[in-house]
Automatic annotation (TrEMBL):
Pfam families (alphabetical): Amidohydro_2 (PF04909)
Organism phylogeny: Bacteria, Pseudomonadati, Pseudomonadota, Gammaproteobacteria, Thiotrichales
Segments forming domain Amidohydrolase-related: 116-259
Protein name: Amidohydrolase-related domain-containing protein
């Protein structure tokens, strides 16, 4: 695959979105065909998608199986975010849903340090390890510690640059987990562009750990689908502050290698 990085070509750079949702109100307002049109005009070649309930993900995957990477959500309603880790019925539902064979990961899992000893979390991590599934985690660094202590070889996609999106803090976490931790940048674009461009600290972090970051929009609400194009513009804006090779990795190559287990041509 040939990449050129003129101003025009930068806008044509394929993106692999590593964190999207398509459920509930999204399904009512956007058909799968409309979602793929959004992807096409923004040059989103592949996307990791989960939903509450999971029927949204399944319908989008059925429409475009060559472009959607399905993750299995654990929630029946969005209210389940608060206490899923203490609902033992989650485990049985997850194991049954995985029988479909389409899912590549579990999540997005909302969980924080105070709940890290949850027996439900422990079983979910075991399932991920047993079935070679990734975990998409919305939580603090203590949750990463807990998961890796239970299953050192599991792969974690850590959402939103974590809960402390600070270059030096993230550097410490990445130094601790150099192999199986990947971090998405979703919903942090305005923060990254707070001064109009990436600060030197952010640039250095992305360059030093260029193999472990992925870009994402995160359609956590219907409005994010309505403003999808603007969010992508922000992503491309801060990416443009990085060297070409780093742009390629964050925008596309890292996620591609992660999910297809092969180098980008």
């Amino acid at each position: 695959m040939l990449y050129l990085f003129s101003t025009f070509a930068q806008a044509q750079q394929f993106l692999f979105d590593s964190h999207l949702h398509y459920g509930g109100e999204d399904v009512k307002q956007f058909t799968p065909k409309q979602i793929i049109k959004i992807f096409d005009r923004n040059h989103i070649k592949y996307a990791v998608v989960s939903s509450t309930p999971n029927q949204g993900t399944e319908s989008l995957y059925a429409y475009a199986p060559n472009r959607i990477i399905p993750f299995l959500g654990l929630y029946q309603t969005l209210g389940d975010k608060r206490d899923w880790m203490y609902d033992e019925s989650v485990v049985a539902r997850v194991e049954e849903a995985l029988n479909s064979g389409i899912y590549r990961g579990l999540g997005e899992l909302h969980i924080f340090a105070k709940d890290r000893k949850s027996p439900v979390l422990r079983r979910i991590v075991e399932i991920a390890s047993e079935r070679n599934l990734m975990l998409q985690v919305h939580g603090d660094a203590e949750i990463l510690d807990e998961i890796f202590s239970l299953a050192p070889n599991v792969t974690i996609l850590w959402a939103h640059l974590g809960t402390r999106p600070e270059p030096e803090f993230l550097r410490g976490v990445l130094t601790k987990y150099p192999q199986n931790l990947f971090i998405d940048t979703s919903v942090r674009d305005k923060q990254l562009l707070e001064s109009g461009e990436l600060t030197d600290d952010w640039k250095k972090l992305f360059i030093d750990y260029q193999d472990q970051f992925t870009v994402a929009v995160d359609t956590f609400s219907v409005n994010r689908w309505n403003t999808f194009d603007l969010v992508v513009q922000d992503i491309r804006s801060w990416l443009a502050d990085l060297p070409d090779e780093v742009v390629r990795k964050l925008a596309y190559d890292n996620a591609y290698k992660l999910f297809f287990n092969e180098k980008v041509d």
